[in-house]
Amino acid sequence: MLTKQQAKERIEQLKKEIDKIRYAYHVLDKPIVSDAVKDSLQHELQELEQRFPDLITPDSPTQRVGGKPLDEFQKVQHAVPMLSLTDAFSEEEIFDWQERNSKLLEDFTQKVTQDGYYAELKMDGLAVSLVYEDGLFVQGSTRGNGLVGEDVTQNLKTIEAIPLRITPSLELIQKAGVKGAVKIPRRIEVRGEVFMTMKVFEGVNQEQEKAGLPKFANPRNAAAGSIRQLDPNVTARRKLSFYAYDLVTELGQKTHQQAHEIMKLLGFPVNPHNQHCANLTEVVRYHQKWASERRNLPYWTDGIVVVVNNLDLIRRLGVVGKAPRGMIAFKFPPEEATTVVEDIIVQVGRTGALTPVAVLRPVLVAGSTISRATLHNEDEIRRKDVRIGDTVVVHKAGDVIPEVASVLKEMRTGKEKIFQMPTRCPVCGGVVIRPAGEAIARCVNKKCFAQNFRRYLHFVSRPAFDMVGLGPKILKKFIDEGLVKDPADLFNLTEGDIAPLERFAEKSASNIVKAIQSRKHISLARFLYALGIQNVGEETAYDLADHFGSLEKIKNASLEEIEAVYDIGPVVARSIYDFFRDKNNLQFIERLLKAGIKIEEPPKKQAQPLSGLTFVFTGELASLTRDEAKNLVRGLGGDVSESVSKKTSYLVVGANPGSKYDKAHTLGVRLLNEADFLKLVGKRS
DNA sequence: ATCCCTCGAGTTCA
DNA sequence: CTCGAGGGAT
Q: Nearest nt to A644, CA vs C1'?
């Protein structure tokens, strides 16, 4: 049986060890033991404390949870006001800020040249203040209005990243670079940001949903909501994180960077990406770096904080309004913005599909101005309940494609109009039909100009005839001038036809003719794709060419024969079969052949070293284009797909990979870099 | 009948 | 990238 004295010693030992583990994990970011080991130590501590309740101290890790729910939060007066920051959105504003400061203080430029700036990632959470007395965490509070906040000590104690006890000493402070003797005060105050990682945020929202509670809009709200919980047990479950960013108490620090050093040595986690910058050029570089890399961080940041490193300067620069002059928030270009749906228009595709598109009041999102966003189809509009006149949140899906993320319904005035799919084609006035059970409404007029025009674009597009330099504008001109009646006429164009047109130099006329003529030789797969048969895309065209080997055979194939092709079912077989029974289509093919198109039939199959393997590409390859790589794989009998799944054999990763990389990572798909890929195909060919 | 993977088709901006 | 839907596997 353990004596009380033995228990006391063991408890001290356990507390020390658990805090060491906490420090390694949260401050050094280098875990030394597994979670299970930590849990086990914590469990032992808890048992001992249960047996000897009078040995429980307020800095024991078991005291992080277990507080009683409060009725309300007490108000806390901040000894030093918690200020806010001025925002800057451009490089220019940052330089203006420096300019203003240098005019304010004579020695500003000299001191900044000496000590530089300190740049930090601006965490998207909520600011809190932590007060320690005689090393013990005694009070934590929110910012509130800057002067008076709320006492959330119990809740902050549940955050493991926050130390419950600190042991400041002269030795420690000197280790951080402070020179000379410093009297260490009893009371020490540190400020920082409480935030929630994306992963925790998603988990919390899943639970909210399960419990039938409203979801949090973003990690910031979730963190704020969790801190303002009256029941600390709820906060404990939310797994909040914390980074310290300011040492309020005077411990001899001369620069902001030194303050960070001291806080870290005291046991507070500070963001490891914070960085000293010699000048604003370096600050701007830091900003640019994180503007693009912030996506790879496990938490949200909306900018950086730039701090004049010399603390004396900050003090003397003073405060304007509620913001100190010595620091500024340099925001990242927003990834999300709100704007107004000015109209919903309808576009007509190659197959007659009517696609509603939101016309937006132009707004800057993630570096580019967006003015339109697809709404996909009628059902999608209903689901999101987007109306003309609505204020909406837009963002970019996969960094490129603008998307209406949600509607701010609170902002409705009642004047918003509900979108109705037109019953007549907006381009040709033809009949619009939406077959039962299908999501897409189509203009059924085969002669519709919009459809016809899209067919041209498809014909000249890269995976089809790949006629470079033949964009929509030039094509439209050719059609308007009556130079071409269908895409086959393109091959009969001469310089003499084009040159007289307005704004056509001789040179560009001859370039276009050359580009067209150089495409007369084409593979069977590309040719089939270019025809624009419904439900036949790149992949199916390739399958068809491979299976039948010649245009003649495909033309004459029966429905059953087509359906026998792997990956082709009744629906696709029907549209292929019907296509080759249509008189106009057959004439079109005849005209193409008469114009001198030479179809190259697929080579007889040779060795198939990659058969059964599926490749997916992401990012840019250095030594060959995506198309060349695809052909290489197919030539060796491998399959190429556009999306990663567990059936993917290899993901070939080039420069600047996209989201496929993450997916492959979670699915455990094997990755190849370019060199490995080349080795693989090279060795086996 | 149902699930999962692919494919097709449409889309934005610099 | 997104959605819808075709096709094969279960």
A: B5
Catalytic (active site) residue A417: no
Domain with CATH 1.10.287.610 in chain A: 4-63
With 0-12 / 13-18 / 19 or more C-beta atoms within 10 angstroms meaning exposed / middle / buried, residue A473 is: exposed
- Looking at domain A614-684, what is its CATH homologous superfamily? BRCT domain (3.40.50.10190)
Separation CA A606–CA A602 (nearest Å): 11
Q: Which has the closest alpha carbon to A147: A191, A81, A85? A: A81
**Strand C nucleotides below 7 A of a protein CB?**
1-8
In chain A, residues under CATH classification 1.10.150.20 are 449-519, 523-600
- Which residues make Cβ contacts (< 8 Å) with residue A205, sequence separation at least 6? A215, A216, A222
**Tens digits of per-residue pLDDT, A225-269?**
888 888 888 888 889 999 999 999 999 999 999 999 999 999 999
Q: Strand B: list positions under 7 Å from protein Cβ.
A: 4-14
Q: How far is the CA of A647 from the C1' of B3 (A)?
A: 15
CATH assignment of A75-331, among 3.30.470.30, 2.60.40.420, 3.40.1190.20, 3.30.70.1060 = 3.30.470.30
Of chain A residues 391-410, which have a beta carbon within 7 Å of strand C?
A: 397-401, 403
Task: Summarize pLDDT for A338-378 with one digit per residue, the tens.
Answer: 889 999 999 998 888 999 999 998 888 877 788 899 898 88
Which is nearest to A300 in space by CA: A325, A342, A334, A252? A334
Q: Is A80's CB less than 7 Å from nucleic acid strand C?
A: no
Average pLDDT of chain A, as a whole number: 86
Domain covering A449-519: architecture: Orthogonal Bundle (1.10)
Q: How far apart are CA A336 and CA A220, in angstroms?
A: 15
Q: Which two tokens stand for residue A278?
A: 């010699």
- The fold for domain A4-63 equals Helix Hairpins (1.10.287)
For tokens 């203080």, what's the residue?
A105
CATH superfamily of A523-600: 5' to 3' exonuclease, C-terminal subdomain (1.10.150.20)
Class of domain A336-418: mainly beta
**Could you read off the pLDDT of A607-644 as tens digits, one per residue?**
666 676 788 887 777 777 777 777 777 777 777 777 77
Q: Which amino acid is at A362?
A: P
Among A20, A30, A103, A122, which one carries the catalytic annotation? A122
**Is the distance between the Cβ of A622 and the closest atom of strand C smaller than 7 Å?**
no
Burial of residue A196 (CB within 10 Å: 0-12, 13-18, 19+) is buried
Cβ count near A467 (within 10 Å):
21
